[in-house]
Amino acid sequence: MPTRQSLLGAWVSFSQAAYNVIAMASRIAAFIAVALPLLAQAPAKKNALPEDDAATSITLDVTRVNMLFTVTDRKGRFVTSLEKTDFEIFESKKPQQIVEFTSEANLPLRIGILIDTSNSIRDRFRFQQEAATDFTNAVIRQGEDKGMVVSFDSTAELVSDLTDNTEQLGRAIHSLRPGGGTALYDAIYFACKEKLMAEQPRDKYRRAIVLLSDGEDNDSRYSREQALEMAQKADVVVYAISTNITHNETTGDKILKYFAEETGGQAFFPFQSRDMAQSFENIANELRHQYNVFYRPEPLKADGLYHPVDIRVKGRKDLAVRTRHGYYAPKF
Prior knowledge:
The protein has helices at residues 4-47, 51-62, 125-139, 166-174, 184-195, 224-233, 251-263, 273-287; strands at 65-72, 87-91, 94-96, 98-104, 109-116, 146-152, 156-163, 206-213, 236-242, 267-268, 290-295, 306-313, 320-323, 326-328. It is of the alpha/beta class. The protein folds into three domains: 1-48; 54-104 and 290-328, Immunoglobulin-like (Sandwich), CATH 2.60.40; 109-287, von Willebrand factor, type A domain (Rossmann fold, 3-Layer(aba) Sandwich), CATH 3.40.50.410. Helix 3 runs antiparallel to helix 4 (166-174), helix 3 (125-139) runs parallel beside helix 8 (273-287) and helix 5 (184-195) runs parallel beside helix 6. It starts with a helix and ends with a strand.
């Protein structure tokens, strides 16, 4: 039977052990109380962007607007000898400061040749094919420029993707056959969104569409305004060559003018087949006579909306500037 002394010793040992357990538990609790807030903060600090990096990403995407444009005199001749100080830029009627200015004679081209293959253009189709082929041979420089062929009747179809192979482009053009309705707006929307917009960085290429059509649309899913908006977002200039030979301005002619004027291009109306080759030559010359300016919008508005822009030659009413009428700002 345990003696009183042995029982007392056991009790003392038990009490000491219990004290040690309680003390250890207290230290663990204190450690957890301090460590948990630190652990909770650590991932946030690790994943957060430094303030300077965040600001830089916004600056690169938002505050730099580039505008390609052409200057001509009253006789339509290109004026290529102007300097940065000769121009002034207005955004929403507010003057802007030009940050960079270059004369772009050899900017790499990205060209979409959009050919109407509907029944309405059947009479002039073969000559269009010849003129378009001559155009690609004259303009596309191997290793620098790229062109593509999109046909459209009831639907838009990519016949040849972007390439510098002029023989491939020529075969694609000559493979086309007329027939069907006209999905003009769909063709512009597709070429800009799916192909020309993908060529990056935007300021390193001159993007253009050469559109052969009578301008009439009766089969598109997209509207005229949707097609124009996509062209403007992709920084694409539209050059239109009308296939109307009636000598009377039609609704289609007005539509071709609309796309050309709003994007900074031109519309041509060759009433005879032999004049079509001259229209292509005029487009080729213009693509090699460009100015390019960059400016930072003041005030800066990353609102996703359309901002009108006006470029003028100071004190020279005899000179005309042809460029897109504005741009769509990014939205964040």
